[in-house]
């Protein structure tokens, strides 16, 4: 009887061992997967890329220079406000109005076009006047003329629209006033950041807002107005109702941004608002629509 029990136990053990090897082989000759062959328990998290905006760099005082993007077409059109900070604060607000319009729906950006808006190229100057670098209301702007004029310059007291590579001079002029054009071309972090971005994306066209004269001005750096620039100047002026000018000749300008763009063979126009308070949005919207439709597929 004992022998029968012992043999029964032995047979049961052998059956268990055989089953273990059969199941452990996974039903074939391949070895059972080890922990290193299996999916990791915690997958690597890949950070999402924000395609709606780009931080181009920082200002002289460390404030972000932000570009906002709308649409994904091959032809990029750039609109820039606030190169003169708080002195031309209405150019910042018109840029924000454009952003509101573009954010209202994808149909506002024609097929084949990408719109980039840089609302405040001089955040230091904007902050000096209105106390913020983000969206603000016209009522927040102080009445002080001195504060507004001080906001024209960046944190290094440089006039950014005298720091680009067309007729650059360290000792520059603004109307009849002496201003700094920087220590060399693109010496300022703001101008260098936008230069690097423009050289990277190679935009189809650039529009820069200023105030105040009330007109659309073609860019030129001693090599004639580009045919496409001439077309954009007439197109924007005709749609908006502003007067078109072949060049800005009210007083001598050195180191101007749109003239540098002309030197780089990039179509560029200056749109000067009529005064230092209004955004003239309806006029600018008409010009913007005409320009974007020009580049639409």
Structural description of this entry:
- The chain contains eight helices and ten strands.
- It is an alpha/beta fold and 297 residues long.
- The protein has one domain (53-295): Zn peptidases (Aminopeptidase).
- Strands 1-2-4-3-7-10-8-9 form an eight-stranded mixed β-sheet, sandwiched between helices. The chain has a two-stranded antiparallel ribbon with strand order 5-6.
- The N and C termini lie far apart (96 Å).
- 41% of the residues are buried.
- Mean pLDDT is 87; it is low at 1-7 and 15-49.
What is the compact description of this entry?
The chain is an alpha/beta fold.
CATH domain topology: Aminopeptidase
Tell me the count of domains.
Answer: 1
The CATH homologous superfamily is termed Zn peptidases
The end-to-end distance, rounded to whole angstroms, is 96 Å
Q: Major β-sheet, in short?
A: 8 strands, mixed
Q: What is the share of helical residues?
A: 25-40%
Mean pLDDT: 87
Helix run count: 8
Major sheet: arrangement of strands: 1-2-4-3-7-10-8-9
* Low confidence ranges: 1-7, 15-49
List the helices and strands and how they pair.
Layout: H1 2-24, E1 53-58, E2 64-70, E3 75-80, H2 89-103, E4 113-118, H3 123-130, H4 145-150, E5 171-174, E6 177-180, H5 189-201, E7 205-211, E8 215-218, H6 227-240, E9 243-245, H7 257-263, E10 268-273, H8 281-295
Parallel strand pairs: 3-4, 3-7, 7-10, 8-9
Antiparallel strand pairs: 1-2, 2-4, 5-6, 8-10
